[in-house]
């Protein structure tokens, strides 16, 4: 079973605060993704990457930056957090293209912006 | 762009009754369809996947058939169990973006199975 580890698992910040969510996968997967999960909206893709140094824009990128520093590590950055970014964030990885592979999710990071 | 629609936000069933969760989609390209399941306080996990029209796919007692003519991929099970209670996501991926594929998820359906 592929392992995807997220930190922190819980984070509380104030409006305008700076937040970094970290994700590490140790299965040599090429693709990594950041999703947010909200009731009524399901899982929505923020950013994704297919390798170190690569970044692709997802469907809801506004207010988020991301960086893939190594094959293992993918970070999500909120530089000026807003209450609308209160959500449960999931990181995921897959070895190959989604069509042929399987997406492995981390346990989630709950972010609250006051 | 692509879209996935799950019409039911919550489905409540008595144990032993059949399960059917609806999923329809829109895309202009060849598609791969998936069902993911997320139990309480856990990460989503892949349950089923398919790209073949009119072929039934089964896993862990659940099954689904991709019908391209009606753009549907409904999830079914003959007899619900208490342990089936979870959040279920339908998702699709298309070939349009080549090697940078991504999943588009529906809104999710909570299945609650009661004794």
Gist?
Chain A has 114 residues and is mainly β. Chain A has strands spanning 4-7, 10-13, 19-25, 31-38, 42-49, 56-57, 65-68, 73-78, 87-94, 104-105, 109-113.
SSE map:
The complex is a heterodimer of chains A (114) and B (115).
Chain A: E1 4-7, E2 10-13, E3 19-25, E4 31-38, E5 42-49, E6 56-57, E7 65-68, E8 73-78, E9 87-94, E10 104-105, E11 109-113
Parallel strand pairs in A: 2-11
Antiparallel strand pairs in A: 1-3, 3-8, 4-5, 4-9, 5-6, 7-8, 9-10, 9-11
Chain B: E1 3-5, E2 10-14, E3 19-21, E4 24-26, E5 31-38, E6 45-50, E7 56-59, E8 62-65, E9 75-77, E10 86-94, E11 104-105, E12 109-114
Parallel strand pairs in B: 2-12
Antiparallel strand pairs in B: 1-4, 3-9, 5-6, 5-10, 7-8, 8-9, 10-11, 10-12
Molecular shape of chain B: globular
Pick out the low-confidence regions of chain A: none
Please name the CATH topology of chain B.
Answer: Immunoglobulin-like
Listing every helix as H and every strand as E from the N terminus to the C terminus, the arrangement of chain A reads EEEEEEEEEEE
> Number of domains in the coordinates of chain A?
1
Proportion of residues in helical segments of chain B: under 10%
Largest interface chains and counts: A-B, 24 and 25 residues
Q: How would you state the average pLDDT of chain B, rounded? A: 91
Estimate percent helicity of chain A: under 10%
Structural class of chain B: mainly beta
Number of helices of chain B: 0
CATH architecture of chain A: Sandwich
User: How many separate helices of chain A?
Assistant: 0
Rg of Cα set of chain B = 14 Å
CA-based shape of chain A: globular
Distance between the termini of chain B: 41 Å
The radius of gyration computed from the alpha-carbon positions of chain A, rounded to a whole number of angstroms, is 13 Å
Total strand count of chain B, please? 12
CATH architecture of chain B: Sandwich
CATH homologous superfamily grouping of chain A = Immunoglobulins
